[in-house]
Amino acid sequence: MSSRERILGRVRRALADVPRDDTPYERAVARDYLGEHGERTVEQTVDLLAENLADYRAIVHRTDAGGLAGVVAGLLRERGSSSVLVPPGLDEGWLAATGVTRVADRAESTPHELDRVDSVITACAVAIAETGTLVLDGSPDQGRRRITLVPDHHICVVRVPDQVVSSVPQALERLDPARPLTWISGPSATSDIELDRVEGVHGPRTLEVVLVG
Questions:
Q1: Which tens digit of pLDDT belongs to each residue from 177-186?
Q2: Which residues are in the LUD domain (predicted)?
């Protein structure tokens, strides 16, 4: 007997005394929790997102569409980046002001090749104000999940206010659960039992978020 068969057998035994007409799980649990906490204007929601991103030690920048290319070029220049990984569907205009070598998002790229890239720039699917979380779903302007987990510097562009929601329930309404979702709350960090914080263990050590109005 395989492990799978053992587990399914235990499930069947546990459910043996459940009536066939019992209330389905989907209706048995109340789903009347709050969609968001409090009432905020669009501007207040964006401010809350920026505040919580910064609280997670992300570096937040604000600009308009016309200034985005200049901001991105400045961030790469300040970082000293000589290469930037670019998803295939990223807006070309975002990199119009930089002369940094562009690296394509390729299925054949090895972790060592990705580790040699100085920076990566992506868009996002949605940004959650109450938790300071960015969600990527693998769309063409976000690329494969691993390109945001290996390079040490991630620039993420958020379109304001279209991509900003207040809460996790609101974000889930927009997301496709069948897509490869990556939830990012600040730069990669972990702590041991002594609470010594170490950044960059399983993701970028530096996360810069550009809010584009």
A1: 999 999 999 8
A2: 103-212
